[in-house]
Amino acid sequence: MTKTQLMQAAFHHFGEHGYNGGSLAQIADEVGIKKQSIYTYFKSKDALYLAIYEQAMLFELTFVQTYMEKVRDEPIEQALLPLLQQVAHRFEHNVETKFFIRSTFLTPHHLQEALGKKTYDYLDAIQALFTTYFCTKMPRENSDEAAVAYLA
């Protein structure tokens, strides 16, 4: 068993069932270990949740950065709708994406402060990407407002 396998199982369970429905015992069973062995890698359920949130956030940020680089020369009309479609597809087929979106909107109350800071950092990075994109595509418009409108 590796830490990576443990995190993948956690993505699946927390992504499907949320924080409260995600059981460390079920995660351990999926990986083939005893529940207490999880504590070799993570000191608590919260620590595991925060670790996979950080990984999922970086995974999603890399996806958007790569996508925006790929479409930087394409017209807005051909670039932005496919991005939204890809995010919807990723939510259905990717455990990291499902977990990230679910955790962003359904944050466990006791982790709101810790996850809120990370979420705002992610949103700031995404807004900067879109502001740059809109600035090159719509130089006479307020590109920051356009970015915020698209992301809303």
Please describe what this structure looks like:
This protein has 152 residues and is mainly α. Helices cover 77% and strands 0% of the residues. The chain contains 7 helices and no strands. Helix 3 packs parallel to helix 6. The mean pLDDT is 91.
Quick structural overview:
The chain contains seven helices and no strands.
Q: Give the helices and strands as they follow along the chain.
A: HHHHHHH
Shape: elongated
The oligomeric status of these chains comes to: single chain
Roughly how much helix do the residues carry, as a percent range? over 70%
* Beta-strand percentage range: under 5%
Helix run count = 7
CA(first)-CA(last) distance: 41 Å
CA gyration radius, whole angstroms: 18 Å
Regions with little confidence, pLDDT below 50 for 5+ residues: none
Arithmetic mean of pLDDT: 91
How many DSSP-defined strands? 0
The main pleated sheet reads as: none
Structural class: mainly alpha
List keywords for this structure.
mainly alpha; 152 residues
Describe the secondary structure blueprint for this structure.
Layout: H1 3-21, H2 24-31, H3 45-70, H4 76-93, H5 95-105, H6 112-137, H7 143-151
Helix pairs in contact: 1-2, 1-3, 1-5, 3-5, 3-6, 4-5, 6-7
